[in-house]
């Protein structure tokens, strides 16, 4: 899929550049393709539209930010975003059964596949959070304004600019507002898109537009597995029933063994216990104790290795406790419940999607950086579908994501330049004509 | 104090029995003393009064049960009990600064010391618990009705019976309703009585009247120490800050080492972790994790041994974690906070107070049993003051203490007999004339 994308986009762009429709490229010229796009009257018209629309991008970003969208409660914001997409020109914008908003913009040489350009609808903030946007000069403060609400507004700006400039792309573009990108959402939106949605086998490339500098290319998806491990036993009075198995001892043993796992620094793999709980009174042998465990890795096999070890450790800890103390009233049992599953993956740094992004970023005068993160792109990366997460902001124009004092700077010139540059990446990959 | 009590009561009873006021006993005749008391017109009058008052005992027990008295919130019930004591004839009933209700009934040969006859005012149930008493035939259901509210009502019956029969005792009797006997109260009422109260150095013997069969003598006080152990560290992002010390790993290590302590079966010693908690999100290295630990023993030195080991273990666990992972953002520290401290102790089975109880129980036609528990008597036992906890109920006439379906059977004949028998124990020890 990756190589098919590269050949087709390159062949098309070279064909246009040399006016030789039948010629096939021998090698890609990413910078050349991007330069051609940037120099085109259509892209210039689109860029001018973004410049004119700057105030509207900000206003729509504020409007969406002020509609709370906690994990699993994105519905109201989704409906508003759907309306906005329709107003921007994509009349068929719909909401799928999982809650994702999606709208197709047809290409000229569609091969039945689509390039997804997405941002996520949800924020990390619970329902009661004050999401009113506060403005201080060019700085806007509000939970979720950067991550990722302003990106939804930028998607709308892309659509309006493309419509205004009558831009044609080779590929069909599926604009998507996803649900469930943040923590507990566990990528449910993008997972649906790739495993159940109407386009599930038709996605040839994937962009997640995120907060952060347009210079940053995330082409690695850190995978994670999260478990809630619960040890249960018969319980009893701390004095009268002393000698019975105690789930806290099994949990302690499991935590200790878990803490001894050795992991490599590269590819980076991590593990930890984030939350523990259980028991009701100090003078009882509790009936249960639990821990929530987080494991992450840049490597699929390394993540599997740590996960397998955890699952073995917790079984051994239960067995060890059943051996150490009396089971006459019942045994310690253990349940390891998967509560988070973000697949790991990466997109080759030499792939077209990364190389076009690099070329467009450099053409915009930025210095590209590459990184790993955990975003909607994890899902296609894991499936081997070319995917990157890119920023749509000027460098250092936002911060404090996932905190109540999250902010972004909406100063016009750097913001418009960043948005325009991010659009040029999408245009290069989708084969702007 | 113990031997003084034995000699004086025995010499007095023998003097009465043989009509020889100057004679000194060479050995105690517990059964004889009890028999003499039971046969006396005064005790018979008191027993008849208890029989007549049965309905009132039950009614006052219900009235007190329906006044909630959670730990640290015994005040309303205490005031009502104070009034009831005054109405029963002890006009000087007072409430001490800790919240205990107390009233002195003077003896005839007071030596400046007192024998305490107590029951506890508090229950284990939180403020919102429905404490309305439900009646099914002779069974009353309500949280706290048995443990220990009906015992307060029985104290009132003792007083009324003694007043009605004009009973004289050698010793001054201090009737007390204590606060803080249950869990979190940590014996604060009885502790105050023995360490700060007006009678703190004047208590020569101690009774705690409790739920349970009058046949059961609790002459052993299981000591307990409870700690809340909190491991704290710098915290951080589970992926980004991986490698930093994690308080949950220190806690796990401490739990594991704690679980390995070997204890003797006799004297019985126990330990356990009852409750754990800490952390806020699965994807963070938490800033703290805690566990609540319970240790108990029938032996003062054995309890100390386990306590010392715990305190060493938690320090070692913190140090171990600081050695295993990076402390560049801060170290794991540990705080072990004492949240419960019930002293251990016991009253010799051959002591007067136990032997009089045995004799009175046998005279009542019951078969005495001996046991260990954790009650208000722990405090005097630990101080070497003769103390026992006795029941005031018929065998199998109550149950489900500390549960919402706690019950007691108030059928008249067995209840009156049990109350009368418990009074006879008190009369024997306080030297009824």
From TrEMBL, chains A, B:
Signal peptide extent: 1-25
MF (Gene Ontology): hydrolase activity; metal ion binding
Domain Peptidase M20 dimerisation, chain residue ranges per copy: 223-319
SUPFAM superfamilies, sorted: Bacterial exopeptidase dimerisation domain (SSF55031), Zn-dependent exopeptidases (SSF53187)
Keyword Nuclease: no
Keywords: Hydrolase, Metal-binding, Signal
Record-linked InterPro entries: Bact_exopeptidase_dim_dom, Peptidase_M20, Peptidase_M20_dimer, Peptidase_M20A
Keyword Hydrolase: yes
Family matches, as PANTHER family: ACETYLORNITHINE DEACETYLASE, PEPTIDASE M20
Entry protein name: M20/M25/M40 family metallo-hydrolase
């Amino acid at each position: 899929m990756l190589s098919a994308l590269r050949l087709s986009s390159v062949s098309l762009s070279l064909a246009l550049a040399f006016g030789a429709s039948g010629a096939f490229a021998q090698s890609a010229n990413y910078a050349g393709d991007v330069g051609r796009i940037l120099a085109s009257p259509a892209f210039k018209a689109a860029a001018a539209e973004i410049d004119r629309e700057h105030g509207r991008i900000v206003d729509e970003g504020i409007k969406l930010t002020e509609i709370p969208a906690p994990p699993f409660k994105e519905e109201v914001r989704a409906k508003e975003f759907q309306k906005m997409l329709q107003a921007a020109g994509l009349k068929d914008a719909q909401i799928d059964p999982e809650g994702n908003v999606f709208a197709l913009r047809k290409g000229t040489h569609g091969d039945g596949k689509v390039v997804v350009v997405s941002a996520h609808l949800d924020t990390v903030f619970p329902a009661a959070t004050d999401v009113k946007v506060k403005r201080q000069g060019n700085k806007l403060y509000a939970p979720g304004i950067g991550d990722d609400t302003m990106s939804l507004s930028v998607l709308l700006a892309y659509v309006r600019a493309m419509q205004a400039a009558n831009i044609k792309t080779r590929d069909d573009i599926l604009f998507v507002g996803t649900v469930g990108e943040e923590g507990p959402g566990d990528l449910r939106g993008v997972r649906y898109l790739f495993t159940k949605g109407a386009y599930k086998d038709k996605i040839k490339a994937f962009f997640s537009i995120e907060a952060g500098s347009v210079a940053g290319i995330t082409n690695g998806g850190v995978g994670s597995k999260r478990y809630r491990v619960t040890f249960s036993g018969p319980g009893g009075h701390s004095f009268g029933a002393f000698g019975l198995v105690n789930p806290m001892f099994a949990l302690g043993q499991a935590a200790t063994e878990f803490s001894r796992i050795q992991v490599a620094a590269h590819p980076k793999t991590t593990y930890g216990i984030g939350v523990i709980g259980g028991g009701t009174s100090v003078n009882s042998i509790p009936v249960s104790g639990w821990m929530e465990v987080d494991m992450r890795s840049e490597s699929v096999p390394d993540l599997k290795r740590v996960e397998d070890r955890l699952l073995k450790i917790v079984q051994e800890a239960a067995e060890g406790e059943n051996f150490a103390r009396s089971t006459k009233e019942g045994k310690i049992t253990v349940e390891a419940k998967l509560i988070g599953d973000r697949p790991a993956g990466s997109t080759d740094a030499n792939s077209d999607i990364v190389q076009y992004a690099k070329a467009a970023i450099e053409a915009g005068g930025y210095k590209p950086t590459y990184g790993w993160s955990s975003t909607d792109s994890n899902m296609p990366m894991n499936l081997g579908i070319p995917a990157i997460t890119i920023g749509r902001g000027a460098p250092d124009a936002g911060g404090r994501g996932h905190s109540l004092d999250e902010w972004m700077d909406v100063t016009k010139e750097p913001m418009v330049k960043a948005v325009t540059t991010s659009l040029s990446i999408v245009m290069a990959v989708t084969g702007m004509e």
